[in-house]
Amino acid sequence: MARVMAVTGNEAVAEAFRQINPDVCAAYPITPQTELMQRFAAFAANGKVDTEIILVESEHSAMSACIGAATAGGRVATATCGPGLALMWEMLFVASGMRLPIVMAVVNRSLSAPINIHCDHADAMGARDSGWVQLWSENAQEAYDNTIQAFRIAEHVDVRLPALVCMDGFIIGHSITRIEFLEDELVKGFTGEYTPLNPLLDIDNPKSFGPLVLTDQYHEYKYAQHEVMWTKVRDVVLGVAAEFEKVSGRRYGLFESYRLDDAEIALVILNSAAGTAKDVVDSFRERGVKAGLLKPRLFRPFPYAEVAQALGGLKAVAVLDRADSFGGYGPVFTEVCSALYPLAKRPAVINKIYGLGGRDFLPQHAERVLKELEEIAQTGRVSVIKEYIGVRE
Amino acid sequence: MSARGYSELPVGPVILDAGNSRLLKTGAWRTINRPVFKEENCSQCLLCWLFCPDMAVRVEDGKVVGFDYEYCKGCGVCAQECPGKKGQKAIAMEEEKK
Amino acid sequence: MAAELQLKELAQRKVLLAPGHRLCAGCGAPIVAKMVLLAASDYPVVAASPTGCLEVSTCISDYTAWEIPWIHSAFENAAATLAGVETMYRALKKKGKIDKEIKFIAIAGDGGTYDIGIQSLSGAMERGHDLLYVCYDNGAYMNTGIQRSGATPLGADTTTSPAGSVIPGKTQRRKDLTKIMAAHNITYTAQASPSHWSDLLKKVSKAVSMKGPKFINVITPCHRGWRARVEDTILLARLAVQTCYWPLYEVENGITRVTYKPREKKPIEEFLKLQGRFKHLFAPENEWIIKQFQEDIDREWERLLKEESLYA
Questions:
Q1: How far apart, in Å, are the Cα atoms of A295 and each of A29, A67, A256, A273, A277?
Q2: A255-388 belongs to which CATH class?
Q3: I want to staple A241 with a disulfide (CB 3.0 to 4.6 A). Which of A252, B49, B84, C135 is the partner?
Q4: Whole-model pTM?
């Protein structure tokens, strides 16, 4: 029997952590993630988990301690956001390079300056190239479900890579919504026991971790990471999702296709704003416009072939990015274009940057973009490829 | 240089063979001098063993018996620190024979 | 407290740092690491090092000089990394997955300790992790080519504080990290020198037998950086102690004890003159630096003796 409750996104992920009961958590407070670790610390204080929590003095040390703990040989989780993730940046590459299946909740927050505590995706997009598996979540339910699945994906023998689970700061992290929690035993059974590959604490078989690797091997170690990301993770994500569906009744894929089957125009959009956009897609459908939406779930590795298949037959696509690569296109746009490029016939694609620093994404924003797509679909002409929306002149 | 292919490498960089640096014979670094053991002057204080940065002082049954030239880099710390006996050092740095 | 360690007995034990490492001939770091590991060898030990000379030279794939489990993850975080290992150890012990009593030791250079790693170190010490952090202090970033660090003494010529015609080497004093660590009110803080090996071994052995966070700062001559003779590594460490540049003391549960008092305190010139990095200080226009250097040492030594007398 699932427990239905009204909780915040932060509480939902904290609950997943409680049910999984990792051996070690190392974390540092940062808005809007703080509530998550606070909640988890309360579980520890009240004996609801036997996790050892390390309340470090910075996010750099949080990830360093996670790396030490995971190398030692046990299950490790953490959470952060925004500048905290940025401070971890160096260590993110160490975690993936050392092939440590650490799971991290990222409660997306913008980066300074100017300082701003609200949601955008600059933090996780900045970590795009760090070798972590990235799962994105529209709402608290997805964040909870993704967190549980993330442990299975990261720890899978074919993967052994760290994974992060994103949800929008405040918009999801702090909003109370309806959640279906799985039973504790079900989660425990689903995640199972973790068996480390080469535990450092295996004192009778001493190993040296973190050697200097020079020109004769570095390239091969990086290729090994590429190979796993490129050829293994996708199938593991789908396999874990299929198993998860059996226990939860909730279906997950590499991305969500919303009214896309016969669509001519579509929005591609991550996380909470996809919810708003789906309503607008519905209203366009009611008017007879063949509109649809694609919401990426697995952003790293990016499912290029599947995205190409889902969008290839459309006339026009708008990719909405809640992060910018200044002087370049938005990060999701670049991926979608890379996916579509090999196709002989492909849709026109435009890029909109929206919602930075927590600026509301409103239905009229989605409406305006869909109208523009209707026009592009008719004329085949794109006037502006990249544009900010909702900016005051 | 390691010529191993990517699939032969461990999952994440780790050295599983503890202490295998022994295979690297750093004695080849010695260029000018090598330590020579003069047992008659040795008080068996074992300081050379303790101070050797390269674990190149050979000790058997608790007694210094000489040097491991496979690893000795010829730094001369042992000879410098050797208290010897009656003003005579038990370690002399002598020219490396090529 | 652990019994006095005898060399005859220690020489029977396996040295847990293997030969074949790539540190320079005459380097002080492996001497210190070896002594630390010998003194701790009553227990199984897991070690960590930050990026630095010791790290890059002891573990170049596919070879390691470490005979014990060892981890390196980055430069500024040996304390946090080892804190993570130690915490996982406690977690697994609590769950009955490990039964052995394991000790945790970080061995780190001064760059990774005084400067870029001080936050991570301070945090780990404040959180009370059961580990010993040993700093081998050679007074500069030797691994990257002798750049000044927070541990570089006044007047030293380094590649980023070169002694020039206008600026006479490093114009700032070194920071006193041992005092900073003692101010954390941790279980045990000490300063040691490989020249006074018995004192060093005793301190390490005592530290590993104690619960909680421990810190030992060990002067570790680097002939490349100090511009000294290769064979003088231990001699220089001894002079550092005899001049009271590097006082040997310990702070155990808040009580300070000076563990070695030279019968005759040697003038600092004795230490400085053997090192090329201080050569320029002997020029008449720079004599004030030596004077300043000596005054700093005298003041600090007096302060230390006074501090000790508070508990006598």
A1: 30, 31, 5, 10, 10
A2: alpha beta
A3: A252
A4: 0.98
